[in-house]
Amino acid sequence: MTEGQANGAADPHGRVRVVAADRDGDQAIVDTVRDLMSGNASVQVVTADRGLRSRVEELGAAVVGPSWLRAHLPPD
What we know:
This protein is mainly α. It has one domain (4-72). It contains 3 helices and 2 strands, in the order αβαβα. It has helices spanning 25-38, 50-58, 66-72, and strands at residues 44-46, 62-64. The protein has a two-stranded parallel sheet with strand order 1-2. α2 links the parallel β1 (44-46) and β2. The radius of gyration is 12 Å and the shape is globular. The chain starts with 24 loop residues before the first helix and ends with a helix.
């Protein structure tokens, strides 16, 4: 999920779904997770925000922190 200046970002490898948030990024993430989970998808959210973590875990999503993501990204 991107918001503000990050809107327009994309994964050049096509492995990550990037969704632009119109207003509230956290709510857009929760809504997207809810939609994906209703289709029995496996969802993983990367966030350091404890409140957001709690909200998406309640929906059944797995959550990892930003350090996990950095460790799995290819070098620049």
